[in-house]
Every structure is written in C-alpha cells, then in structure tokens.
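User: I'll paste a sequence; please echo it back and then give the predicted structure.

Assistant: Echoing your sequence first, then the prediction.
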Amino acid sequence: MVKEFKERGYWALILGGSTGLGLASAQKLASAGMNICIVHRNSRSELEDIALQFDQIRAENVELLTFNLDIIKPESREQVLQGLQSRFAGEGKIRCLLHSVAKGNLKPMMDPDGRELEHTDFQLTVDNMALSLYDWVKTVYKGGLFADDARVLSFTSEGARKAIHNYAAVAAAKAALEAITRSLALEFAPYGIRANCIQAGVTNTASLQKIPGSKELIEHSIQRNPFKRLTEPTDVANLVYLLCTDEAAWINGAVIPVDGGEHIR
C-alpha cells in the first residue's frame, strides 16, 4: 500500500483502539503511513494480547503512543494532551480523531428479576459513548493539536433510529453522538475540522457478543444483507482511511453507512 501520509507527519488519535473497529482502523491508517495514538481501557490480563496487536502497528514503521486510561476523566485528557504536545513540539498534527468507545449498558428496560435500566446506566453510557466525543474534540482543539485540515470520525449504528431489545441506553448514546457530530460539523468548520459518523453494519466484534440475543442478530443480518455476509472490521477501517484522504475534504456532517447495503432492507 502507498504510504501517502508518511511524509506529512500526520497522527490519528483513536479513542478505544485496542480491539474491534478502532484497532482495525489504527492498523489501516498505520499501513498508509499515519502515526497512531491509542487511548484504551483494558485490564492487566488483557494487555499481553493487546501488545501483540500494537506490535503489528509499529511494524508499519510509524510512531505509536498508547495510554491505558479512563477516557471520560479530565485528568486522562490532560495526560494525553501533554504527551502529544511534547511529541509535536508546538505543531498541530492530528489529522484524525476517531471515537470508537464501546462502554455502555445493555440491560433491558423491563425485567421480571429487577435487573432493568436505571438512570445511572443511561448516564454512564451516554457519557462514554457520546459526550466524551465533544470533550475530546474541544480539548484537542484548545491544545492546538489538530492539523489544519482535520477529520473527526465516530461510530454509530442503526440503533440510533431503530428499537432493539436491550439496546435502549446505547441507542440514546448513538442518537446523541450523531447530534453532537452534526453540531461539530457546523461549529468547527471555520477551524478546518470536518466531522462525520460512520454507521457500520452488524460486525462480529466483542462488543456485539455482549448484546443479549447477538447470535440471532447475526443470523438475521446475514439474511438481510444483499451480500449475505456480516460487515468486517476491515470494511469499516477502509472507510475511515478514505475519509482521511484529501479527496474527502468536502464530506461534512454526514452519517455514512458501510454495511454492503444492509440498511436498505
């Protein structure tokens, strides 16, 4: 692959980049010569496997910074900000801020055993999966870290508009994420920032497997998809890459499906 970003010194800041769509996107961008900063939250027992994935990114001869932090804490944002500012030496280099956070609650709204959604479950999910996008964009912008032509991307789902069992809290977060993205696209455009959501089709990631009834959801999605297969993380990563190219500069404020046409049925 042509490393078109290599000589430009660009970086991607990926929130939630140790697994799934975020990791696949990091690997794709690294293969195109983009340096990578990943902020993730994983337990000590998971770090050995994650380190192997990170080594594959380094093998692309790009720089890689990683921070194992809670993304919604202000002190976490400050730690990452300081680390990048010292690396950039006063020059804004973040071409892509990718929000791939999948920390939410998948309880039902009603449950005979009383294990149903509470206000705090909604709050935790929306804080992590929606409001954190704005917090990070504002922090990176005020820290002078964005490149002159920057791309803010985040992952949404059909659940933002379609009711799915046990998905109410995540659905609320995805709807908020899309609304925040539209406002970012409007209000940050004068500062050279484009903002878009990517609506991935059903993808067999660890996050999907946590949804009750995920096996049935997978089977239904395969039948519904015109190509009779699930979306792969690499399908989504390819769109992340495309939206980071110069040619995508006029795409702003959109929700873009990448699902092989699954959404049309």
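The radius of gyration is 18 Å. Helices lie at 20-31, 47-58, 74-88, 119-142, 168-187, 206-209, 214-224, 233-243.
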